[in-house]
Design a protein that fits this description.
Layout: H1 5-12, H2 17-28, H3 32-35, H4 39-45, H5 51-63, H6 72-78, H7 84-96, H8 105-114, H9 118-131, H10 139-146, H11 151-166
Helix pairs in contact: 1-2, 2-5, 4-5, 4-7, 6-7, 7-9, 8-9, 9-11, 10-11
Length: about 170
């Protein structure tokens, strides 16, 4: 198996669907630590027009733990992506960083309050909870979400508020 992560990342940008799908699949077969460098391109690949590319990218992201902290700015920028899958996975990886991701709190609040995608709003609430006390600025937004119409978002917002207060 080709373990040159850089060439696989380049492959994800290919104009050919089969090359993108092959690169995504090979990335998904790497050890989680080896995938770290490709976290941003894998998140972006979640919005690919090809179902095979999207599935392989999601598979890789599901196996990967927390990304490198140096990717936080890039992940934060992807929260605003119009593709719900891209924004969802950006929020997911930010949440995996835990307290170290406190710089993303303003963007997560914006996403929680304004995303048109319910699953992205839910994932943003979860990420804020994982950040813990460093996300205290999100308390009002989380309380508003907890009182909203979406029962899952309400539960996640309540849990996040508890995690912010608990530490």
């Amino acid at each position: 198996m080709d373990r040159d992560v850089s060439s696989l990342m380049v492959g994800l940008g290919s104009p050919q669907e089969t090359a993108r799908a092959e690169a995504a699949e090979k990335l998904s077969q790497l050890e989680p630590a080896e995938m770290q460098a490709a976290a941003l391109v894998l998140v972006e690949a979640c919005g690919d027009e090809s179902e095979a590319v999207r599935e392989a990218a999601v598979g890789a992201l599901e196996e990967m733990g927390a990304p490198d902290l140096e990717l936080l700015d890039g992940l934060t920028a992807l929260l605003a992506d119009p593709n719900a899958d891209v924004a969802y996975w950006a929020a997911t990886l930010i949440g995996r960083l835990g307290p170290e991701a406190s710089a993303a709190v303003p963007a997560l609040i914006e996403t929680l309050e304004n995303s048109s995608h319910q699953n992205v709003r839910q994932r943003s609430a979860r990420a804020l909870g994982k950040i813990g006390p460093g996300a205290a600025a999100a308390a009002d937004s989380l309380r508003a979400a907890a009182g909203g119409d979406d029962p899952r978002l309400a539960r996640l917002a309540e849990r996040a508020l508890g995690e912010i207060r608990a530490h």
